Amino acid sequence: VQLVESGGGLVQPGGSLRLSCAASGFTFARYGMSWFRQAPGKERVLVASISSTGEIQYAESVKGRFTISRDNGKNTVHLQMNSVKPEDTAVYYCTNFEYWGQGTHVTVFL
């Protein structure tokens, strides 16, 4: 099983980033997928989830700004991040709750 995140980087407040997670080694369409993030010195927390049937949940802190989506044909889950804030700075991880990716860094700088 592999989960490989990409798309992180440096962005100014108010800007946008699109994170992607490429999955392999399991039947992607059967799994719910989630994005977590871990800011420096803090615990890893849930950002957004999308179930195998397309049900979506967001953390309150990102509602209205972030959008999670999945492409079962490409075994990929995305996180569109808009109107980013400095507090969105973190390492972002994707997971199917059995396996985790290595994370991608997002830094929102002034």
Structure notes:
The chain has 110 residues and is mainly β. The N and C termini lie far apart (37 Å). A hairpin with a 4-residue loop joins strand 7 (66-71) and strand 8 (76-81). It has strands at residues 2-6, 9-11, 17-24, 33-38, 44-50, 56-58, 66-71, 76-81, 90-95, 104-108. It has no helices and 10 strands. The chain has a 6-stranded mixed beta sheet, with no helix packed on it. A 4-stranded antiparallel beta sheet has the order 1-3-8-7, with no helix packed on it.
**Beta-strand residue fraction:** over 45%
- The end-to-end distance, rounded to whole angstroms, is 37 Å
Helical run tally = 0
> What is the overall pLDDT average?
97
* Unreliable stretches: none
Task: Profile the largest sheet.
Answer: 6 strands, mixed
Question: How many strands?
Answer: 10
Write down the oligomeric state: single chain
Helix/sheet category: mainly beta
Instruction: Give, in spatial order, the strands making up the sheet with the most strands.
Output: 2-10-9-4-5-6
Shape label:
globular
Summarize the amount of helix as a percent range: under 10%
Question: Nearest-angstrom radius of gyration?
Answer: 13 Å
Query: Order of helices and strands, N to C?
Result: EEEEEEEEEE
SSE map:
Layout: E1 2-6, E2 9-11, E3 17-24, E4 33-38, E5 44-50, E6 56-58, E7 66-71, E8 76-81, E9 90-95, E10 104-108
Parallel strand pairs: 2-10
Antiparallel strand pairs: 1-3, 3-8, 4-5, 4-9, 5-6, 7-8, 9-10
